[in-house]
Amino acid sequence: MSIQSVDSHRHRVVIIGSGFGGLFGAQALKRADVDVTVVARTTHHLFQPLLYQVATGILSVGDIAPATRLVLRKQRNAQVLLGDVESIDLDSKKVTSRLLDRTTVTEYDSLIVAAGAGQSYFGNDHFAKFAPGMKTIDDALELRGRILGAFEQAELSQDPEERARLLTFVVVGAGPTGVELAGQIAELAHRTLKGAFRSIDPGSARVILLDGAPVVLPVYGGKLSANAAARLEKMGVEIQPNAMVTGVDADGLVVKDKDGSERRIESQCKVWSAGVQASPLGKQLGEQSGAEVDRAGRVHVLPDLTLPGHPEVFVIGDMMALDNLPGLAQVAMQGGKYAAKQIKANLAGDDRSTRQPFKYFDKGSMATISRFSAVAKVGKLEITGFIGWVAWLAIHLMYLVGFRSKFSTMLSWTVTFLGRGRAQMASTEQQVFARVAIEDLQDYERARHAGLIGDPAVVFTGEERAG
Ligand SMILES: Cc1cc2nc3c(=O)[nH]c(=O)nc-3n(C[C@H](O)[C@H](O)[C@H](O)COP(=O)(O)OP(=O)(O)OC[C@H]3O[C@@H](n4cnc5c(N)ncnc54)[C@H](O)[C@@H]3O)c2cc1C
Protein backbone atom coordinates (compact mmCIF):
# COMPACT_ATOMS: atom_id res chain seq x y z
CA MET A 1 0.00 0.00 0.00
CA SER A 2 1.29 3.51 -0.80
CA ILE A 3 0.33 6.84 0.71
CA GLN A 4 0.95 10.04 -1.21
CA SER A 5 0.20 13.70 -0.66
CA VAL A 6 -1.09 16.13 -3.26
CA ASP A 7 0.45 19.55 -2.65
CA SER A 8 0.02 22.91 -4.33
CA HIS A 9 0.58 26.59 -3.54
CA ARG A 10 -2.40 28.70 -4.60
CA HIS A 11 -5.67 28.63 -2.64
CA ARG A 12 -6.66 24.98 -2.83
CA VAL A 13 -10.28 24.09 -3.45
CA VAL A 14 -11.10 20.41 -3.12
CA ILE A 15 -14.44 19.21 -4.47
CA ILE A 16 -15.78 15.78 -3.53
CA GLY A 17 -18.00 14.36 -6.27
CA SER A 18 -18.35 14.93 -10.01
CA GLY A 19 -22.16 15.01 -10.08
CA PHE A 20 -24.29 18.07 -10.65
CA GLY A 21 -23.05 19.95 -7.58
CA GLY A 22 -19.37 19.04 -7.94
CA LEU A 23 -19.04 19.62 -11.67
CA PHE A 24 -20.95 22.91 -11.74
CA GLY A 25 -18.96 24.11 -8.73
CA ALA A 26 -15.67 23.26 -10.45
CA GLN A 27 -16.71 24.97 -13.68
CA ALA A 28 -17.78 28.08 -11.81
CA LEU A 29 -14.20 28.39 -10.53
CA LYS A 30 -12.76 28.38 -14.05
CA ARG A 31 -11.43 31.92 -13.97
CA ALA A 32 -10.61 32.02 -10.26
CA ASP A 33 -7.06 32.24 -8.95
CA VAL A 34 -7.31 28.84 -7.28
CA ASP A 35 -6.25 25.23 -7.79
CA VAL A 36 -9.29 22.99 -8.03
CA THR A 37 -9.07 19.27 -7.31
CA VAL A 38 -12.13 17.16 -8.01
CA VAL A 39 -12.01 13.84 -6.16
CA ALA A 40 -14.68 11.38 -7.29
CA ARG A 41 -15.25 7.66 -7.15
CA THR A 42 -16.26 7.47 -10.82
CA THR A 43 -14.45 8.73 -13.90
CA HIS A 44 -17.64 10.27 -15.25
CA HIS A 45 -20.21 12.96 -14.58
CA LEU A 46 -23.58 11.19 -14.51
CA PHE A 47 -26.81 12.73 -15.74
CA GLN A 48 -29.01 10.68 -13.38
CA PRO A 49 -32.39 11.92 -14.66
CA LEU A 50 -31.89 9.91 -17.87
CA LEU A 51 -30.59 6.70 -16.26
CA TYR A 52 -33.95 5.05 -16.82
CA GLN A 53 -33.50 5.51 -20.58
CA VAL A 54 -30.20 3.60 -20.40
CA ALA A 55 -32.00 0.87 -18.45
CA THR A 56 -34.70 0.59 -21.11
CA GLY A 57 -32.45 0.58 -24.16
CA ILE A 58 -33.04 4.11 -25.48
CA LEU A 59 -29.72 5.80 -24.65
CA SER A 60 -26.16 4.58 -24.39
CA VAL A 61 -23.98 5.06 -21.33
CA GLY A 62 -21.81 7.57 -23.23
CA ASP A 63 -24.82 9.80 -23.92
CA ILE A 64 -25.40 10.53 -20.25
CA ALA A 65 -21.96 10.00 -18.69
CA PRO A 66 -19.13 12.04 -20.22
CA ALA A 67 -15.65 11.58 -18.72
CA THR A 68 -15.13 14.30 -16.11
CA ARG A 69 -11.48 14.58 -17.12
CA LEU A 70 -12.45 15.44 -20.68
CA VAL A 71 -15.17 17.88 -19.61
CA LEU A 72 -12.56 19.77 -17.55
CA ARG A 73 -9.71 19.29 -20.02
CA LYS A 74 -9.54 22.96 -20.99
CA GLN A 75 -9.96 24.26 -17.46
CA ARG A 76 -6.28 24.76 -16.67
CA ASN A 77 -6.76 25.29 -12.91
CA ALA A 78 -8.62 21.97 -12.43
CA GLN A 79 -7.39 18.43 -11.91
CA VAL A 80 -9.38 15.25 -11.44
CA LEU A 81 -8.42 12.45 -9.03
CA LEU A 82 -10.18 9.11 -9.10
CA GLY A 83 -10.83 7.77 -5.62
CA ASP A 84 -13.40 6.90 -3.01
CA VAL A 85 -13.24 9.47 -0.24
CA GLU A 86 -13.08 7.57 3.02
CA SER A 87 -12.50 10.38 5.47
CA ILE A 88 -12.51 14.13 5.84
CA ASP A 89 -10.52 15.72 8.66
CA LEU A 90 -11.94 19.17 9.31
CA ASP A 91 -9.21 20.15 11.80
CA SER A 92 -6.22 19.32 9.63
CA LYS A 93 -8.16 20.20 6.41
CA LYS A 94 -7.39 16.92 4.68
CA VAL A 95 -9.42 14.58 2.49
CA THR A 96 -8.33 10.95 2.32
CA SER A 97 -9.36 8.89 -0.67
CA ARG A 98 -8.63 5.37 -1.86
CA LEU A 99 -8.23 3.77 -5.25
CA LEU A 100 -7.63 0.01 -4.95
CA ASP A 101 -4.66 -0.24 -2.53
CA ARG A 102 -3.51 3.37 -3.02
CA THR A 103 -4.37 6.00 -0.43
CA THR A 104 -4.23 9.68 -1.40
CA VAL A 105 -4.35 12.60 1.03
CA THR A 106 -5.42 15.92 -0.48
CA GLU A 107 -5.12 19.13 1.53
CA TYR A 108 -7.57 21.97 1.08
CA ASP A 109 -8.16 25.58 1.99
CA SER A 110 -11.79 25.41 0.87
CA LEU A 111 -13.84 22.23 0.55
CA ILE A 112 -17.06 21.55 -1.36
CA VAL A 113 -18.66 18.26 -0.39
CA ALA A 114 -21.05 17.06 -3.10
CA ALA A 115 -21.07 13.28 -2.70
CA GLY A 116 -24.82 12.93 -3.35
CA ALA A 117 -27.06 10.13 -2.14
CA GLY A 118 -27.54 6.41 -2.63
CA GLN A 119 -30.61 4.19 -2.58
CA SER A 120 -32.40 3.66 0.72
CA TYR A 121 -34.26 0.45 1.54
CA PHE A 122 -35.52 1.90 4.84
CA GLY A 123 -33.53 -0.56 6.93
CA ASN A 124 -34.17 -3.54 4.64
CA ASP A 125 -30.85 -3.56 2.79
CA HIS A 126 -31.27 -7.29 2.03
CA PHE A 127 -33.98 -6.32 -0.50
CA ALA A 128 -31.23 -4.86 -2.70
CA LYS A 129 -30.02 -8.28 -3.82
CA PHE A 130 -33.33 -8.95 -5.62
CA ALA A 131 -34.61 -5.43 -6.29
CA PRO A 132 -31.71 -3.23 -7.39
CA GLY A 133 -32.00 0.54 -7.24
CA MET A 134 -31.31 3.06 -9.98
CA LYS A 135 -28.48 5.32 -9.00
CA THR A 136 -25.48 4.33 -11.07
CA ILE A 137 -24.56 3.20 -14.58
CA ASP A 138 -24.03 -0.30 -13.21
CA ASP A 139 -27.58 -0.23 -11.83
CA ALA A 140 -29.03 0.84 -15.19
CA LEU A 141 -27.09 -1.76 -17.20
CA GLU A 142 -27.97 -4.50 -14.73
CA LEU A 143 -31.61 -3.53 -14.96
CA ARG A 144 -31.53 -3.51 -18.76
CA GLY A 145 -30.16 -7.05 -18.66
CA ARG A 146 -32.77 -8.15 -16.13
CA ILE A 147 -35.67 -6.71 -18.14
CA LEU A 148 -34.53 -8.15 -21.47
CA GLY A 149 -33.47 -11.42 -19.79
CA ALA A 150 -36.95 -11.91 -18.34
CA PHE A 151 -38.50 -11.73 -21.84
CA GLU A 152 -35.86 -14.17 -23.16
CA GLN A 153 -36.53 -16.69 -20.38
CA ALA A 154 -40.28 -16.38 -20.86
CA GLU A 155 -39.84 -17.25 -24.55
CA LEU A 156 -38.15 -20.52 -23.50
CA SER A 157 -40.56 -21.46 -20.74
CA GLN A 158 -43.41 -23.94 -21.30
CA ASP A 159 -44.84 -23.48 -17.80
CA PRO A 160 -47.67 -20.87 -17.73
CA GLU A 161 -47.04 -19.94 -14.08
CA GLU A 162 -43.34 -19.44 -14.66
CA ARG A 163 -44.07 -17.42 -17.79
CA ALA A 164 -46.44 -15.17 -15.87
CA ARG A 165 -43.78 -14.59 -13.20
CA LEU A 166 -41.16 -13.79 -15.82
CA LEU A 167 -43.49 -11.38 -17.59
CA THR A 168 -44.42 -9.47 -14.43
CA PHE A 169 -42.30 -6.37 -13.81
CA VAL A 170 -42.67 -4.54 -10.51
CA VAL A 171 -41.43 -0.99 -9.90
CA VAL A 172 -41.44 -0.02 -6.22
CA GLY A 173 -41.85 3.73 -5.67
CA ALA A 174 -44.09 5.98 -7.77
CA GLY A 175 -41.95 9.13 -7.69
CA PRO A 176 -40.63 10.58 -10.96
CA THR A 177 -38.07 7.78 -11.48
CA GLY A 178 -40.59 4.99 -10.82
CA VAL A 179 -43.20 6.58 -13.07
CA GLU A 180 -40.72 7.11 -15.90
CA LEU A 181 -39.36 3.60 -15.59
CA ALA A 182 -42.77 1.91 -15.48
CA GLY A 183 -43.87 3.92 -18.51
CA GLN A 184 -40.80 2.94 -20.49
CA ILE A 185 -41.00 -0.77 -19.59
CA ALA A 186 -44.62 -0.70 -20.82
CA GLU A 187 -43.63 1.03 -24.08
CA LEU A 188 -40.78 -1.44 -24.54
CA ALA A 189 -43.18 -4.37 -24.16
CA HIS A 190 -45.98 -2.94 -26.30
CA ARG A 191 -44.05 -1.15 -29.05
CA THR A 192 -40.37 -2.04 -29.32
CA LEU A 193 -40.62 -5.79 -28.74
CA LYS A 194 -43.88 -6.23 -30.65
CA GLY A 195 -43.53 -9.14 -33.09
CA ALA A 196 -39.97 -9.95 -31.97
CA PHE A 197 -40.81 -13.21 -30.14
CA ARG A 198 -42.44 -16.40 -31.45
CA SER A 199 -43.79 -18.11 -28.32
CA ILE A 200 -44.79 -15.14 -26.17
CA ASP A 201 -46.62 -11.89 -26.73
CA PRO A 202 -44.44 -9.24 -25.04
CA GLY A 203 -47.50 -7.00 -24.91
CA SER A 204 -49.04 -9.40 -22.37
CA ALA A 205 -46.40 -8.38 -19.82
CA ARG A 206 -47.73 -6.90 -16.57
CA VAL A 207 -46.04 -3.73 -15.36
CA ILE A 208 -46.96 -2.97 -11.75
CA LEU A 209 -46.13 0.36 -10.14
CA LEU A 210 -46.67 0.33 -6.39
CA ASP A 211 -46.18 2.85 -3.62
CA GLY A 212 -47.08 3.33 0.03
CA ALA A 213 -48.58 6.72 -0.89
CA PRO A 214 -52.19 7.01 -2.08
CA VAL A 215 -51.26 8.57 -5.47
CA VAL A 216 -48.48 8.46 -8.05
CA LEU A 217 -46.07 11.40 -8.10
CA PRO A 218 -47.14 12.43 -4.56
CA VAL A 219 -44.83 15.49 -4.67
CA TYR A 220 -47.05 16.99 -7.37
CA GLY A 221 -50.47 15.84 -6.14
CA GLY A 222 -53.82 17.06 -7.55
CA LYS A 223 -54.27 17.40 -11.29
CA LEU A 224 -50.72 16.35 -12.23
CA SER A 225 -50.84 13.11 -10.20
CA ALA A 226 -54.25 12.26 -11.65
CA ASN A 227 -53.09 13.04 -15.19
CA ALA A 228 -49.97 10.87 -14.78
CA ALA A 229 -52.01 7.98 -13.34
CA ALA A 230 -54.57 8.13 -16.17
CA ARG A 231 -51.85 8.15 -18.82
CA LEU A 232 -49.98 5.23 -17.20
CA GLU A 233 -53.16 3.17 -16.93
CA LYS A 234 -53.91 3.83 -20.59
CA MET A 235 -50.49 2.38 -21.38
CA GLY A 236 -51.34 -0.75 -19.41
CA VAL A 237 -49.40 0.01 -16.21
CA GLU A 238 -51.17 -1.36 -13.09
CA ILE A 239 -50.98 1.22 -10.31
CA GLN A 240 -51.18 -0.16 -6.78
CA PRO A 241 -51.30 2.70 -4.23
CA ASN A 242 -51.20 2.37 -0.41
CA ALA A 243 -49.03 -0.73 -0.79
CA MET A 244 -46.00 -1.26 1.45
CA VAL A 245 -43.37 -3.81 0.47
CA THR A 246 -42.58 -6.06 3.44
CA GLY A 247 -40.51 -8.75 1.74
CA VAL A 248 -38.52 -9.33 -1.44
CA ASP A 249 -36.97 -12.55 -2.74
CA ALA A 250 -35.76 -13.97 -6.05
CA ASP A 251 -39.24 -14.93 -7.23
CA GLY A 252 -41.37 -12.05 -6.05
CA LEU A 253 -42.35 -9.71 -3.26
CA VAL A 254 -44.75 -9.47 -0.35
CA VAL A 255 -46.96 -6.41 -0.13
CA LYS A 256 -49.00 -5.10 2.79
CA ASP A 257 -52.15 -3.23 1.78
CA LYS A 258 -53.88 -0.38 3.62
CA ASP A 259 -56.26 -2.80 5.40
CA GLY A 260 -53.26 -4.63 6.90
CA SER A 261 -53.60 -7.75 4.77
CA GLU A 262 -50.53 -9.17 3.06
CA ARG A 263 -50.33 -10.63 -0.44
CA ARG A 264 -47.61 -11.94 -2.71
CA ILE A 265 -46.75 -10.84 -6.25
CA GLU A 266 -44.79 -13.36 -8.28
CA SER A 267 -42.21 -11.41 -10.29
CA GLN A 268 -38.66 -12.05 -11.39
CA CYS A 269 -37.76 -8.47 -12.30
CA LYS A 270 -38.20 -5.95 -9.50
CA VAL A 271 -36.78 -2.41 -9.32
CA TRP A 272 -36.47 -0.24 -6.24
CA SER A 273 -36.92 3.51 -6.63
CA ALA A 274 -38.46 4.27 -3.28
CA GLY A 275 -36.00 6.23 -1.16
CA VAL A 276 -32.62 7.92 -0.87
CA GLN A 277 -29.91 7.99 1.77
CA ALA A 278 -27.25 10.70 1.64
CA SER A 279 -23.55 9.81 1.49
CA PRO A 280 -22.14 8.45 4.78
CA LEU A 281 -19.57 11.28 4.62
CA GLY A 282 -22.38 13.47 6.02
CA LYS A 283 -22.27 11.57 9.32
CA GLN A 284 -18.53 12.23 9.63
CA LEU A 285 -19.07 15.93 8.98
CA GLY A 286 -21.86 16.04 11.56
CA GLU A 287 -19.74 14.33 14.21
CA GLN A 288 -16.80 16.68 13.67
CA SER A 289 -18.70 19.97 13.35
CA GLY A 290 -21.74 19.39 15.54
CA ALA A 291 -24.08 19.91 12.56
CA GLU A 292 -27.32 17.96 12.83
CA VAL A 293 -27.69 15.00 10.45
CA ASP A 294 -31.24 13.91 9.63
CA ARG A 295 -32.58 10.34 9.20
CA ALA A 296 -31.87 10.46 5.48
CA GLY A 297 -28.23 11.27 6.29
CA ARG A 298 -28.45 14.90 5.11
CA VAL A 299 -26.39 17.53 6.91
CA HIS A 300 -28.20 20.58 8.26
CA VAL A 301 -26.08 23.39 6.86
CA LEU A 302 -26.02 27.10 7.74
CA PRO A 303 -27.76 29.54 5.36
CA ASP A 304 -24.47 29.93 3.43
CA LEU A 305 -24.30 26.11 2.93
CA THR A 306 -21.35 25.73 5.33
CA LEU A 307 -20.81 23.76 8.51
CA PRO A 308 -20.96 25.41 11.95
CA GLY A 309 -17.49 26.74 12.80
CA HIS A 310 -16.19 25.88 9.33
CA PRO A 311 -16.95 28.68 6.87
CA GLU A 312 -14.48 27.04 4.48
CA VAL A 313 -16.51 23.80 4.16
CA PHE A 314 -19.61 23.79 1.94
CA VAL A 315 -22.02 20.84 1.84
CA ILE A 316 -24.30 20.96 -1.19
CA GLY A 317 -26.85 19.08 -3.29
CA ASP A 318 -28.41 15.82 -2.13
CA MET A 319 -26.17 15.81 0.97
CA MET A 320 -27.50 19.02 2.45
CA ALA A 321 -30.65 19.80 4.41
CA LEU A 322 -31.81 23.40 4.19
CA ASP A 323 -35.32 24.90 4.11
CA ASN A 324 -36.82 21.55 2.98
CA LEU A 325 -35.21 21.93 -0.44
CA PRO A 326 -35.81 18.81 -2.57
CA GLY A 327 -33.15 16.47 -3.96
CA LEU A 328 -33.07 17.97 -7.44
CA ALA A 329 -30.31 18.58 -9.95
CA GLN A 330 -31.01 22.35 -9.92
CA VAL A 331 -30.55 22.52 -6.14
CA ALA A 332 -27.14 20.87 -6.50
CA MET A 333 -26.07 22.96 -9.51
CA GLN A 334 -27.06 26.24 -7.89
CA GLY A 335 -25.39 25.13 -4.65
CA GLY A 336 -22.14 24.42 -6.52
CA LYS A 337 -22.20 27.80 -8.22
CA TYR A 338 -23.05 29.58 -4.95
CA ALA A 339 -20.15 27.92 -3.12
CA ALA A 340 -17.75 28.89 -5.92
CA LYS A 341 -18.98 32.49 -5.77
CA GLN A 342 -18.37 32.68 -1.99
CA ILE A 343 -14.87 31.27 -2.37
CA LYS A 344 -14.06 33.86 -5.04
CA ALA A 345 -15.55 36.67 -2.93
CA ASN A 346 -13.45 35.67 0.08
CA LEU A 347 -10.30 35.63 -2.04
CA ALA A 348 -11.21 39.12 -3.23
CA GLY A 349 -11.22 40.21 0.41
CA ASP A 350 -14.91 39.96 1.35
CA ASP A 351 -15.62 39.08 4.95
CA ARG A 352 -17.13 35.59 5.37
CA SER A 353 -19.51 36.89 8.03
CA THR A 354 -21.24 39.18 5.50
CA ARG A 355 -22.16 36.40 3.05
CA GLN A 356 -25.64 36.58 1.54
CA PRO A 357 -27.57 33.35 2.30
CA PHE A 358 -28.09 30.78 -0.45
CA LYS A 359 -31.32 31.44 -2.33
CA TYR A 360 -32.72 28.64 -4.46
CA PHE A 361 -34.35 29.75 -7.68
CA ASP A 362 -37.08 27.20 -8.37
CA LYS A 363 -37.14 26.49 -12.10
CA GLY A 364 -39.80 23.82 -11.64
CA SER A 365 -39.76 20.04 -11.91
CA MET A 366 -41.10 17.53 -14.37
CA ALA A 367 -41.53 13.84 -15.16
CA THR A 368 -42.14 12.19 -18.50
CA ILE A 369 -44.77 9.47 -18.62
CA SER A 370 -44.36 8.18 -22.16
CA ARG A 371 -43.44 9.47 -25.58
CA PHE A 372 -45.35 12.70 -26.21
CA SER A 373 -46.60 12.95 -22.63
CA ALA A 374 -45.12 14.56 -19.51
CA VAL A 375 -46.20 16.50 -16.45
CA ALA A 376 -44.41 19.65 -15.30
CA LYS A 377 -44.80 22.15 -12.49
CA VAL A 378 -43.20 25.57 -12.76
CA GLY A 379 -44.25 27.73 -9.81
CA LYS A 380 -48.05 27.68 -9.88
CA LEU A 381 -48.15 26.72 -13.55
CA GLU A 382 -49.04 23.06 -14.21
CA ILE A 383 -48.38 21.63 -17.67
CA THR A 384 -49.42 18.20 -18.96
CA GLY A 385 -49.40 16.21 -22.20
CA PHE A 386 -47.51 17.11 -25.35
CA ILE A 387 -46.50 20.65 -24.31
CA GLY A 388 -45.10 19.26 -21.07
CA TRP A 389 -43.19 16.65 -23.04
CA VAL A 390 -41.64 19.22 -25.41
CA ALA A 391 -40.59 21.30 -22.38
CA TRP A 392 -39.11 18.15 -20.80
CA LEU A 393 -37.19 17.37 -24.00
CA ALA A 394 -35.76 20.89 -24.32
CA ILE A 395 -34.68 21.17 -20.69
CA HIS A 396 -32.98 17.78 -20.60
CA LEU A 397 -31.11 18.53 -23.81
CA MET A 398 -30.03 21.90 -22.42
CA TYR A 399 -28.45 20.39 -19.30
CA LEU A 400 -26.78 17.36 -20.89
CA VAL A 401 -23.05 18.04 -20.77
CA GLY A 402 -21.26 18.37 -24.13
CA PHE A 403 -22.34 18.84 -27.72
CA ARG A 404 -21.71 15.20 -28.68
CA SER A 405 -24.02 13.94 -25.92
CA LYS A 406 -26.75 16.38 -26.93
CA PHE A 407 -26.46 15.36 -30.59
CA SER A 408 -26.43 11.59 -30.05
CA THR A 409 -29.26 11.80 -27.52
CA MET A 410 -31.34 13.81 -29.97
CA LEU A 411 -30.70 11.15 -32.62
CA SER A 412 -31.66 8.27 -30.29
CA TRP A 413 -34.84 10.07 -29.24
CA THR A 414 -35.84 10.61 -32.87
CA VAL A 415 -35.39 6.88 -33.59
CA THR A 416 -37.28 5.82 -30.47
CA PHE A 417 -40.10 8.34 -30.27
CA LEU A 418 -40.94 8.67 -33.97
CA GLY A 419 -40.20 5.05 -34.83
CA ARG A 420 -40.30 1.91 -32.67
CA GLY A 421 -36.60 1.18 -32.48
CA ARG A 422 -34.24 1.36 -29.56
CA ALA A 423 -30.52 1.43 -30.32
CA GLN A 424 -29.19 0.07 -27.02
CA MET A 425 -30.79 -3.35 -26.67
CA ALA A 426 -27.62 -5.34 -25.93
CA SER A 427 -26.84 -6.69 -22.49
CA THR A 428 -24.22 -9.06 -21.15
CA GLU A 429 -24.07 -11.78 -18.52
CA GLN A 430 -21.58 -9.76 -16.49
CA GLN A 431 -23.90 -6.76 -16.38
CA VAL A 432 -26.64 -8.91 -14.89
CA PHE A 433 -24.68 -11.04 -12.43
CA ALA A 434 -21.55 -9.07 -11.48
CA ARG A 435 -23.09 -6.97 -8.67
CA VAL A 436 -24.38 -9.95 -6.74
CA ALA A 437 -21.17 -11.91 -7.41
CA ILE A 438 -19.03 -9.01 -6.11
CA GLU A 439 -21.24 -8.64 -3.02
CA ASP A 440 -20.96 -12.39 -2.33
CA LEU A 441 -17.17 -12.14 -2.68
CA GLN A 442 -17.06 -9.17 -0.29
CA ASP A 443 -19.25 -11.04 2.24
CA TYR A 444 -16.93 -14.01 1.93
CA GLU A 445 -13.81 -11.89 2.52
CA ARG A 446 -15.41 -10.15 5.51
CA ALA A 447 -16.28 -13.52 7.02
CA ARG A 448 -12.74 -14.76 6.39
CA HIS A 449 -11.19 -11.66 8.01
CA ALA A 450 -13.50 -12.14 11.00
CA GLY A 451 -12.22 -15.72 11.30
CA LEU A 452 -15.68 -17.17 10.65
CA ILE A 453 -14.37 -19.31 7.75
CA GLY A 454 -10.93 -20.69 6.90
CA ASP A 455 -8.45 -19.39 4.30
CA PRO A 456 -9.17 -20.57 0.76
CA ALA A 457 -6.44 -22.34 -1.25
CA VAL A 458 -6.01 -19.27 -3.45
CA VAL A 459 -6.58 -15.70 -2.26
CA PHE A 460 -6.84 -12.91 -4.79
CA THR A 461 -5.63 -9.45 -3.86
CA GLY A 462 -7.45 -6.31 -4.99
CA GLU A 463 -4.77 -5.62 -7.63
CA GLU A 464 -4.94 -9.11 -9.13
CA ARG A 465 -8.69 -8.86 -9.36
CA ALA A 466 -8.55 -5.44 -10.99
CA GLY A 467 -5.95 -6.68 -13.48
C1 LIG B 1 -32.77 7.88 -11.33
C2 LIG B 1 -32.77 9.34 -10.93
C3 LIG B 1 -33.57 10.24 -11.61
C4 LIG B 1 -33.57 11.59 -11.26
N1 LIG B 1 -34.36 12.46 -11.96
C5 LIG B 1 -34.29 13.79 -11.70
C6 LIG B 1 -35.00 14.74 -12.48
O1 LIG B 1 -35.74 14.38 -13.40
N2 LIG B 1 -34.86 16.06 -12.18
C7 LIG B 1 -34.04 16.50 -11.16
O2 LIG B 1 -33.91 17.71 -10.96
N3 LIG B 1 -33.38 15.62 -10.40
C8 LIG B 1 -33.46 14.29 -10.63
N4 LIG B 1 -32.76 13.39 -9.87
C9 LIG B 1 -32.01 13.91 -8.71
C10 LIG B 1 -30.68 14.51 -9.14
O3 LIG B 1 -30.01 13.65 -10.01
C11 LIG B 1 -29.87 14.77 -7.88
O4 LIG B 1 -30.59 15.66 -7.06
C12 LIG B 1 -28.51 15.34 -8.21
O5 LIG B 1 -27.76 14.43 -8.95
C13 LIG B 1 -27.76 15.71 -6.93
O6 LIG B 1 -26.50 16.20 -7.27
P1 LIG B 1 -25.27 15.98 -6.29
O7 LIG B 1 -24.12 16.68 -6.91
O8 LIG B 1 -25.66 16.33 -4.91
O9 LIG B 1 -25.05 14.41 -6.28
P2 LIG B 1 -24.74 13.44 -7.49
O10 LIG B 1 -25.11 14.04 -8.79
O11 LIG B 1 -25.34 12.15 -7.10
O12 LIG B 1 -23.16 13.32 -7.46
C14 LIG B 1 -22.48 12.71 -6.40
C15 LIG B 1 -21.05 12.49 -6.83
O13 LIG B 1 -20.27 12.12 -5.72
C16 LIG B 1 -19.52 10.96 -6.02
N5 LIG B 1 -19.27 10.28 -4.74
C17 LIG B 1 -20.18 9.75 -3.90
N6 LIG B 1 -19.56 9.27 -2.80
C18 LIG B 1 -18.25 9.51 -2.96
C19 LIG B 1 -17.10 9.24 -2.18
N7 LIG B 1 -17.16 8.66 -0.98
N8 LIG B 1 -15.89 9.59 -2.68
C20 LIG B 1 -15.79 10.18 -3.89
N9 LIG B 1 -16.84 10.48 -4.66
C21 LIG B 1 -18.06 10.15 -4.20
C22 LIG B 1 -20.37 10.22 -7.01
O14 LIG B 1 -19.61 9.29 -7.74
C23 LIG B 1 -20.86 11.39 -7.86
O15 LIG B 1 -19.88 11.78 -8.77
C24 LIG B 1 -32.75 12.04 -10.20
C25 LIG B 1 -31.96 11.13 -9.50
C26 LIG B 1 -31.96 9.79 -9.87
C27 LIG B 1 -31.09 8.81 -9.12
Automatic annotation (TrEMBL):
Give the record's GO CC terms. plasma membrane
The entry's keywords: Cell inner membrane, Cell membrane, FAD, Flavoprotein, Membrane, NAD, Oxidoreductase, Transmembrane, Transmembrane helix
Q: Which Gene3D superfamilies match?
A: 3.50.50.100
Instruction: Give EC number(s), comma-separated.
Output: 1.6.5.9
The cofactors named for this UniProt entry are: FAD
The record's family statement is:
Belongs to the NADH dehydrogenase family.
Q: What is this protein called?
A: NADH:ubiquinone reductase (non-electrogenic)
Source organism per entry reads: Rhodococcus tukisamuensis
Biological classification of the source: Bacteria, Bacillati, Actinomycetota, Actinomycetes, Mycobacteriales
